[in-house]
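just leaving the lab so this will be short. below you get a single protein, a line of residues and a line of whole numbers that encode the local backbone shape. id like you to explain what the token line says about the fold, in plain words if possible. thanks a lot i owe you, the record is right below:

…
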Amino acid sequence: MLAKFWMIIIAIMVLTSPVVADKIKIATWNIQQFGQTKAGINESQNEQTKARTEHHKANDTIGKIAGIIKKGKFDVVAIQEVQDKARKTLPKLLETLGADWKYIESERTGRGRQEQYAIFFNPVKLTPKDTIHLYDDMEDSWDNFSRDPGYAGFSYRDFEFIIIMCHLDPQQHAAYETERLDDVYEAVKCKTGTPNIFVLGDFNLEEGPADIAFQDDGLLDEENYPEMKAALDSTYDTTVAGENDETTYDNILFDSGQFELKEKGVYRFDDEFGEGYDKNISDHYPVWAIFEIPDI
């Protein structure tokens, strides 16, 4: 009788306990010129390249990059500016990170110097739907992006979402590209059939024409996209060299009707780890945000 009583009490406690919402921590990081030299594995006979490779090897740059990712406790981190035609850098980073991580990568893109996108993720929590696809913007016979955006789908239990990642042109073309990110967003939403989309990466935005274009005609246009928000405002500095509030180049955009933003920030690895963690690692900091996963 007593055992039955306690079973009833436990059942009531379980049923009346508040439900703890699931959360996901998403990061984006432009790792400047992330290739074999920075990974300390470049076998080039060029003396200058050999010297840079030995410098990064001696300073364990790849180990520091892995340490930043692990210390950040990200569930998924989207990486821009991977420059490695031989595709040896990302396996080296995976080896350094350990068995708790997996990654997917895109094909190379770029009009001049080409690069890849990569997404490293926690395989216990997330499952990729496929690889990273590049957005095909050539249907109208006009190449709108100097580096085509990429996108990839993930699932967390029964919840599916899409990450669109970009590395926009920092020059005069920036305003033109930011205006056309909504085309990418709409095309990916139509193709995948999901409104659960994050748009993130290095937007190369600062106060000026590109920022104005983003807010007037792009994804932050309140008239056409009233629920689209940026995780960071312009008070955040996302570059190592930045000395003012005009360098929020990196950001995470999300639909506030689909996701609730719980926390956000810039991971200042130079402050966290101290000497040796500076522009030798990258000229950008990781940007992160924690979102509550909607009930299925």
Summary: The longest helix spans residues 2-16. The longest strand covers residues 23-34. The mean pLDDT is 86.
